[in-house]
Amino acid sequence: MTTWIVLFRGVGGDTLLPVQPLKQALAEEGFRSVVTYINTGNVVLVSNDTPKRIARHVANIALEHFGFSKHIMIVSKAEWGRLIVNNPFPLAVNEPAKLHAYVMERAPDPEAVEALRQKATGPEQFEIRGRVLYYYTPQGVSNARLHPKIEPTLKIAATARNWNTVVKLSHLAEQVARDAK
């Protein structure tokens, strides 16, 4: 059994996904040790299935039960650990609301990455490692100019979590993995 972190894209603000009913629906559909974290589309669960099959199954549950249809990113606990270790902005962890990890559906094309670099004219910094884009906004994400350009420029779906959430999901995944044994 593998512990997975499931990230829904586009949850928050006007788009709500009720976490307690979602947790219950996922458990009823056979996922084990389901834990949700805040109302922004974060789930930790245990499954033997492949990431693609989990994403399809979770997407179907979200659509059938809640009318919710957005991209879903699946990351194993081990991959999430590497996401944390590979952070290219280690000093920024002291400002966790200003450091974000975008999990992308796939690694972006080099041409798209270069196009994004050309648009990065402010103090913000980003680094891509595999299918994770690390984004540091010293002035805060609400004042960041690059933020709204990331997905359209890279031409892929992605979902971002601030470093507080990244760390909390890591702790939850560790706990779920221990409890699932």
Automatic annotation (TrEMBL):
Source domain of life: Bacteria
Pfam assignment, any one: DUF1697
InterPro entries associated with the record: DUF1697
SUPFAM superfamilies membership: SP0830-like (SSF160379)
Identification of the protein by name: DUF1697 domain-containing protein
Species annotation: Phyllobacterium endophyticum
